[in-house]
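Quarterly update from the structural biology core.
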Amino acid sequence: MDKQILILTTTHDFLWKFERDNVRILQEMGYVVHYAANLNDPCYLSDEDKLQRMGVRVHHIEIARSPFLFQENQRALRQLLWLIRKFQIQVIHCHTPVGGLLGRLAGKIDTNQAPLIVYTAHGFHFYKGAPLWNHLTYYHVEKWLAHYTDVLIVINQEDFRQAQTFRLRAGGRVYRIPGVGLDSSMFYPFSALQRAFARQSLGIDENEFFLVSVGELNENKNQRIVLEALAKVKAQTNGELPIRYGICGDGFLRDRMEQWIEQMDLQREVVLFGYCRDVPKVLGCADAAVFPSKREGLGMAGLEALAMGIPVIASDNRGTREYMEHGKNGFVCRDNDVDGFIRGIEAIRHLSLEERKEMAVRCVQSVRPFNKAYAVAAMRQIYARVTQKVERDRESIGNSQRCDGSV
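Predicted structure, tokenized:
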């Protein structure tokens, strides 16, 4: 009988964006890969056909991003239990906070199938500096759910230290991996010709300083702070601002973002590219990337920019601390520090050509530990150990059945 694994997340685009390598590893190990998510979220995008072409069995459940949408998530839990029983799921690999909650609850409830539980925490919500409410709620929930977790995977040093204090299931282990890994075949420094061609196709003049942010339009990604910084600089220069700011991403803040841009008189300076399927093209011709998130588990957008030799102006959080070096591969400031972002932008704008080249080299060097090869090797090792336990459990059940005379 084939081994059955269920990858569980909230949004349906998660697997295509972040889990394709894991799917290939699992299929090579003989797993049938199921994927459960809310196929209606995000509403502006659908990757279902791509997932099916990968050989993934896709299932819609009514899971919600917020843990406080109780009705939706209760229905999702019932749907999840039905999937586990129908397809005899042996392993659940859950992602995202609500995916981690429901996946581990399902593993606790279904004592007959008793799936092995793997949870990847892409950033605990009770990080250093988080609101007190996060520590009072998310910390205690995570500590309790750890009892029903066989493998806990984290992607930064702060979370790794915290995860090691949790008590997992008997034999459970905590792993730290370098995120999903950088794809160096997609993210690499552009030649001067590639850069010029890309800028021309995007309508960016060669004498304009081109800033880029990549991320969903939401409160956490914090693009508004960059708008405020640009508006302040524009006011100080009497409306003369040779800067263009491109934002790759879509989300529920799109309408408000357009309103802010108009209110701050930045219609000429700011371009909303929307959901962008060719991020390397936009990043590769930038002069700097801006990564102002309030929190990140690691932050692939920052890593991808650095891999292309693009310096990053980043907010200080546990994710960016893994790879940002202030003054070497970019500049770091507080997420609410308008003047800090202005200083970072101006510092990069006024670098000499030689200084830019030197910083570009340091950018590329700083992300080498996050290469996809290391992430893939780590996940292959983790899944191999999970598979050993699945096969031991299967053999144990088979032996007990033979002893009972049921086989």
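The chain has 15 helices and 13 strands.
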